[in-house]
Specification:
Blueprint: H1 2-12, H2 20-33, H3 57-75, E1 92-94, E2 100-102, H4 112-123, H5 132-144
Antiparallel strand pairs: 1-2
Helix pairs in contact: 4-5
Length: 151
């Protein structure tokens, strides 16, 4: 079922393939290398607006799990009491304080070669002497513009 959903997402971006990571990479390279029109740039920065790309496979899996869970809830909305399964493992996690958080992806969010491109071009200046982990954190802050480092 997931392969059909993945293929549908690819079709939404006008690609006749069944791998969202391939479409994501192709679109990123095409938009990054050809000089972007002003409408594709983020209004607050001169960077690339990554929201125009399809989700990566890992993120799509988590989204499908959350959508499936919500569907289960709505499907049973006509019942007076619902025996809901735990949302943990269905696109959410619980932290030490017993708070529920969205689990957006497994593994790397940005491939290493893209991190290198972004670090060299926009996020980390050449004069700064930063460690690799700091460079990745700077890139993620730049891309997601998030103060609390949660995605």
């Amino acid at each position: 079922m997931f392969s059909v959903l993945q293929e549908f997402v690819c079709y939404m971006y006008s690609y006749n393939v069944s791998d969202v990571n391939k479409v994501r990479s192709t679109l990123f390279c095409a938009r990054y290398n050809t000089g972007l029109p002003q409408s594709m740039l983020s209004p607050r920065t001169s960077g690339i607006d990554l929201s125009l790309l399809p989700p990566c496979r890992s993120s799509l899996v988590k989204h499908v799990l959350r959508a499936n869970y919500h569907t289960y809830v709505w499907k049973h909305a006509d019942q007076a009491t619902i025996d809901l399964p735990s949302p943990v493992g269905c696109g959410w996690t619980i932290d030490d304080g017993n708070l529920l958080h969205v689990d957006r992806t497994d593994g790397d969010i940005i491939p290493e070669d893209v991190v290198d491109i972004l670090a060299d071009s926009t996020c980390v200046s050449a004069e700064e002497d930063v460690e690799e982990d700091d460079a990745v954190d700077n890139i993620l802050d730049y891309v997601f513009d998030d103060d609390d480092d949660e995605f």
